[in-house]
Amino acid sequence: PDTIELPVIPDGTELDYFKTGQIDMVDVNLRSPIYLTCLALPHLRAQGSGSVVQVASLAGCTPTPGATVYSATKFGLRAFSRALAMELASSGVKFSIVSPGPVDTGFIMDDLEHVADLALSQPISTAAEVAAAILDSAADGRLERRLPALSGVLATVAYLSPGLARRLQPALARKGA
């Protein structure tokens, strides 16, 4: 089928639906990284060292309106990586997650109508900044990096206080803050 009906009520009144392409996002953003990690782990564990760096998103730290499936995949990838870091702590393999906000890759600018205003109201990282965070994570094994820093702090606050985040989101989107 072209669409899958799901009980999602974004504005509190009408059911919405997702196109199957959005559901396919689960394969790209979650299933594939899990599969690739599972392929690499036996080799990393055998050598007793190495780094697995997953690229998630700030949308995986706090849900983003209009990006339900995307947020879910990035939450899942973070949970997978954090759980592996705990399970394999004594293996010598380091696990890291890089969670950027919007990145100036052209992707956002090419699809502006589908990007939440709130996403564009925060600082936009460059691809070079994200690449540097990935390399730093591989080198030092820090569990998680969020960038830009201020957006990462705001995402953490929103995660810890979802009620506050829900109340503030409409005002922040209107203000463009």
Shape: globular
Remind me, CATH topology? Rossmann fold
**Integer-rounded radius of gyration:** 17 Å
Could you say how many structural domains there are in total? 1
Give the helix level as a range of percent.
Answer: 40-55%
Beta content comes to 15-25%
Supply the helix-strand structural class: alpha/beta
Fourth-level CATH superfamily: NAD(P)-binding Rossmann-like Domain
Distance from N terminus to C terminus (CA atoms, Å) equals 39 Å
Q: Would you kindly provide a written description of the structure presented here, covering whatever features stand out?
A:
Helix 1 packs parallel to helix 2 and helix 6 crosses helix 7. This protein has 177 residues and is an alpha/beta fold. The protein has a single domain, classed as Rossmann fold (3-Layer(aba) Sandwich). The longest helix is centred in the first third of the chain and has 28 residues. The strands form three sheets. Strands 3-4-7 form a three-stranded parallel sheet, with helices on both faces.
